[in-house]
Amino acid sequence: MNTSEVFLIAMLLIYSVPYLVWRLGRTEHYAPLVVVQIIGGILLGPGVLGAVYPSYYAAVFDPQVIGALNGIAWWAVMIFVWIAGIELDVAQAWARRGETALTAGLALIAPLVVGGAAAVVMLTLGTGWIGDAGQPWQVVLGIGMACAVTALPILVLFLEKLDILREPIGQRVLRYASADDVAIWGVLALILLDWQRMGRQGGFLIGFAVAAWLIRRLMARIPARDRWYVGLIWLAACGFVADWSGLHFMVGAFLSGAVLDARWFDRKAMDGFRDNILLAVMPVFFLSTGLRTNWDVGGAAVFGAAALLLAASVAGKLAGVHLAGRLLKWAPGEASAIGWLLQTKAPIMIIFANVLLDRHIITGATFTALLLMAVASTMLTVPIVTPKLQRLKRGAFVVVDDAGPISGIDDGSLAKR
After folding, report:
1. CA–CA dist 301, 79 (Å, integer)
2. DSSP-derived 3-state class of residue 397
3. Whole-angstrom Cα distance, residue 238 to residue 355?
4. Per-residue confidence (pLDDT) for residue 90, from 0 to 100
């Protein structure tokens, strides 16, 4: 078979296998299609399919096919992160900056510290976790940040599924996740800081500030139908310059979206665009992610590390959010529900870990442990949070402010009466 035929066989596997498992297995409650696609990528990767059927794996996923898949995956994930940046509601977060800063800060710092401690344990007890170009502090900070990540785009899908996206508690969770998204990419830029390229990176930041001011003026003046196309040109340019400067194209992709206002784009069209990206091209990214899994340090060690990181992530996130709830006097049960919603990690954490792997800061084994942790954490979210939200709704109360009574779950800005 020629390369195009083999490529189409790979595409057939990418789309058919996860879909059939999701639909026939009825996994939606605990494993949405996006999670099944990530698991499918792991199973089709070298760690499973490549180990069981090495000749078949080598025939389907040859270097030319993998190169073509990687090209699609890069552009897909850049668009995905760009949309996440656009959807950041900075104005709303600023309007409630006290509550948002406290909650988002604790929800980020606590799992980062606990996850960093877990990383120290991994580095102390074993080898094979640090990449060729990595330093211990980069690995510890990177793993800690991976434990603290919340995947904003997938969180939106989960909130829609739980029917709370437009409810006060849903909007609060989005504010907290949005604030933490900014910190995630800031920490990534710090980890990737290259002293030999400081001039380039400084030039990128200065040039980006000027270009962002210009693009904002342009986007506000052009017709709505042109903003999508101009936005994608802006995305490609920012990704290229950020990668050239040594920061990685994902940092540029996020920044290119974060400086754009969501109000310039129709919300319904944005939701549809994001859903279409998830449907049409993101499965290729999930497959390419699976192709990068590695068990070189031993399967038991990788699974043990994944379990340790999952425990650190869950414990740290819940501890941080519960502390915020106590300080802000939230209603009973709110902190637990919000903490579990913020556990949603895939695929932003996978993107984050991919960048660390690209830069050889972590090894394939570390990436595999992080990937398993992200999948498990995301799969736990809906089953655990559903009964918690039901109990919150049954115990809904009435609060009163200057505008009159408000029924339902408190938005975090009012005290329970």
Report:
1. 34
2. strand
3. 16
4. 65
Write down how long the chain is: 417
Burial 238-252 (b: 16+ CB within 10 A, else e): bbebbbebbbbbbbb
Q: With cut-offs at 50, 70 and 90, classify the pLDDT of residue 180.
A: confident
The label of the residue with tokens 């709110």 reads 334
Q: State how far the Cα of 142 lies from the Cα of 286, in Å rounded to an integer.
A: 20
- The Cβ of residue 294 has, within 10 Å, a number of other Cβ atoms equal to 18
89 contact partners, CB below 8 Å, separation of at least 6 = 174, 175, 178, 262
Q: Which residue has the tokens 């519960």?
A: 322
Q: Report, in angstroms and rounded to the nearest whole number, the Rg of the chain calculated over CA atoms.
A: 21
Widest distance between CA atoms in the chain? 72
398 secondary structure, DSSP code = E
pTM: 0.79
Q: What is the mean pLDDT of residues 167-188?
A: 82
Tell me whether residue 341 is exposed, middle or buried, using C-beta atoms within 10 angstroms of its C-beta: 0 to 12, 13 to 18, 19 or more.
buried
Mean pLDDT, rounded, of the chain: 85
C-alpha dihedral sign at 198, 204, 207, 208: negative
Where is 51: in which H helix or E strand?
Answer: helix 49-52
Q: How wide is the angle at C-alpha 295 spanned by C-alphas 289 and 301, nearest 5°? A: 120
d(C-alpha 411, C-alpha 406), whole Å: 10
Q: How far is Cα of residue 44 from the mean position of the Cα atoms in its chain?
A: 22
pLDDT at 209: 94
DSSP 262: G
Neighbours of 189 (CB within 10 A): 18
CA separation for the pair 102, 327 (Å, rounded): 9
**What gap in Å lies between CA 164 and CA 382, rounded to an integer?**
12
CA distance 203 to 226: 29
Q: Which single residue is written with the structure tokens 């994944």?
A: 306
CA-nearest of 315, 306, 358, 362 to 336 is 315
**pLDDT (tens digit, 9 = 90+) per residue, 10-31?**
999 889 988 999 999 888 777 7
The pair phi, psi for residue 37, each rounded to 5°, is: -65, -40
Q: How far apart are CA 348 and CA 354, in angstroms?
A: 10
